[in-house]
UniProtKB/TrEMBL annotation:
It holds the Pfam family DUF892. The lineage of its organism: Bacteria, Pseudomonadati, Pseudomonadota, Alphaproteobacteria, Hyphomicrobiales. It comes from the Bacteria. It comes from Limoniibacter endophyticus. This is YciE/YciF family protein.
Amino acid sequence: MTIPTETRSIFITGLKNAHAMENQALSIMKPQVSRIENYPQVARRLEAHIGETEDQIRRLETILGDFDEDHSTLKDWALSMTGAMAAMGHSMAGDEILKNSFANFAFENYEIAAYNSLVTIAELGGFTNATASLEANLREEQAMAQWLEDNLRDVTIQFASLRDMNEDAKI
């Protein structure tokens, strides 16, 4: 089977974008974890997802390598800087933990959409060797998004309770 050149090109661009997206995720999560004091359940889950994200990056690099391609250093750097700036912006908010929770949930859903698209392109292009890794990344992002959704109420209640007791509730 001949792979259409454009399908391959779209797939490689998507993989490079996903690699940069995962680096952006690390630049968002790592500063959050380093600042969390009052929400150990959030810190534990973020630490676990940082490990998953590092695995996702390795999977993407393997797929790119299978196509004799490499990630885009410029995209990785640009999105990492964007993520770091977003994390810094939230650190100044009085409700930092809530803003981080909202942003993390939105970002996880963005990643889910990206991986759904990549799986579809892999299927269209016949890139069957890539599908299992992309689906693994997708499942991890779905699990993280579900965890964030399931725990938002508890985090919000904890934040409000700390504020009611005049405690530092930010993070």
